[in-house]
TrEMBL record:
Keywords: DNA-binding, Nucleus, Transcription, Transcription regulation. The keyword DNA-binding applies. Residues 9-61, 62-116 form the HTH myb-type domain. Transmembrane segments: none annotated. InterPro entries: Homeodomain-like_sf, Myb_dom, Myb_TF_plants, SANT/Myb. This is Transcription factor MYB1-like.
Amino acid sequence: MGRKPCCSRDGLRRGAWTQEEDKILSAYIKAHGEGRWRSLPSRAGLKRCGKSCRLRWLNYLRPDIKRGNISQEEDDLIIRLHKLLGNKWSLIAGRLPGRTDNEIKNYWNTHLSKTLIKHGNGHDEHQNKIETKKEKTLAIVDTNNVVRTKARRCTSNVFITTTPQQQQPHFDDHNEEHMNTGVLLHGNEAANGDENTGHEIESWWDALMDFNMNDDWTWMNEASSPPIHNINVAEAEGDDDDDHHQVMIESEADETRKPDLDLDLNALAAFLDWETYA
DNA sequence: AAATTGAACAACCGCAAGACT
DNA sequence: CAGTCTTGCGGTTGTTCAATT
């Protein structure tokens, strides 16, 4: 005997929403804003539970909702993010403007999971591509004469922060100015002696690679963001303890695009469940 | 034409975390 | 600080509709 469903009270409607109900809910939220869902139905004059109202608004009525026609880009992104994050639908949806967690979840369950099962869990060409890219990048790291991090175990507290921007513009073949942004990772290694609670450095490395699986190194398929074409991994300079790792991300962008890049780095931190600190 | 099947997606449910009292 | 409330999340179920038999 579980607890009572929230919509079990007499007189509360359930099931599909009518146009009239949608209209009432939309009008009420437009006038009074979101929130206080529990009391919203009575205030708005709806015979629904607050939970149902919230869901209806978030998944269907919100003005910024993009419905149907998941594009190929979105499709690819969902696959990559799911590989990285698992069933964290809200996080995945957060990277797809206008899409809801419910929609992504449904899309995954009805389209993508079947497709991936059909193709051997996606671990074929896709995985090979990642491996190849990983090797390529490590080669870049080596030629740049930076120290390559070893896979090592950290304890459960891993921090990520954006370092002060490094003003080291350089030029590529097209004489285009680049921008560097650093991410400093800090694993408090073996602080409590529990080796089983740690993050594997390999795992965040894999995660970074997953973010950059396209041939053109496009970051997250986001048209508005600059494509990131290179990732270097190095020990942070000046740190005595070797649990600091610095990930350098170079972007083909000028100064004005730095906020985009910082946004992506913060998103990455969130995805990987790292803490951020200034 | 009717019955069946399956895809798509809307909606519900229980749980957990954080906010509030 | 404990109890209660609110909100958000992810799993699951229910409903609709088109395709197939």
